[in-house]
Amino acid sequence: MGVLDWLKKKIAGEEAGELTFSAEEENFEGLNMKEVIDAHLGWRTRLERVISGNSTEHLDPEGIKKSDQCALGKWIDSSGKKFSTTNEYRELIEAHNHFHYFAAQVIVNHNDGNTRKATEILDSDFKMFSSRVQLKIIELYSVIYKNQGKV
After folding, report:
1. What would the 3-class secondary structure string for the chain be?
2. What is the pLDDT of residue 108?
3. pLDDT per position as a tens digit, 105-138
4. Beta partners for 28?
5. Are residues 96 and 133 in contact, defined by beta-carbon separation less than 8 angstroms?
6. Is pLDDT above 50 for 151?
7. Which residue among 53, 67, 132, 148 sits deepest, i.e. has the most Cβ atoms within 10 Å of its Cβ?
8. Is residue 139 part of a domain?
């Protein structure tokens, strides 16, 4: 299912299925949406592995909390700034900051020995903001391209 059809279903509250990109949809003003969304989805697996003890990866919560260090954060602070007058851009920043905050909180709680709390955060706030980041990227894409007459 293409980006815009996926977004329409999500907004309508329907089951949207897997998000796929056509070749012309994947790159959005210098941002590879597929790579960025896949990277953010991959965080759940990384965090689950740490919580379950099946990872040798050391995740630093202070580093994770910095939302400007990943590809999306760097894009937001550079090429994406031209969209700063839109609500969708501001909502994307907010969702992205929360995503990184709650990812860090999963690790903080795990490191403190509170696996139950880490799992709760992973299954609630982290999950919600992970979905919201995906949705806000696609909403921004849709609004910008609609304004440019491409949609």
Report:
1. CCHHHHHHHHHCCCCCCCCCCCHHHHEECCEEHHHHHHHHHHHHHHHHHHHHCCCCCCCCHHHHHCCCCCHHHHHHCCHHHHHCCCHHHHHHHHHHHHHHHHHHHHHHHHHCCCHHHHHHHHHHHHHHHHHHHHHHHHHHHHHHHHHCCCC
2. 98
3. 999 999 999 999 999 999 999 999 998 998 899 8
4. 31
5. yes
6. no
7. 67
8. yes
CATH code (residue 43) = 1.20.120.30
* Ramachandran angles phi, psi of 32, nearest 5°: -85, 100
Per the structure, how many domains does the chain have? 1
Tell me how crowded residue 24 is: count the other CB atoms within 10 A of its CB: 9
Say what the alpha-carbon torsion angle 88, 99, 80, 25 is, to the nearest 10 degrees. -80
Q: Which residue has the tokens 């896949």?
A: 38
Task: Tell me which residue has tokens 């894409």.
Answer: 141
pTM of the model: 0.85
What domain range is 93 assigned to? 33-147
pLDDT of residue 149: 55
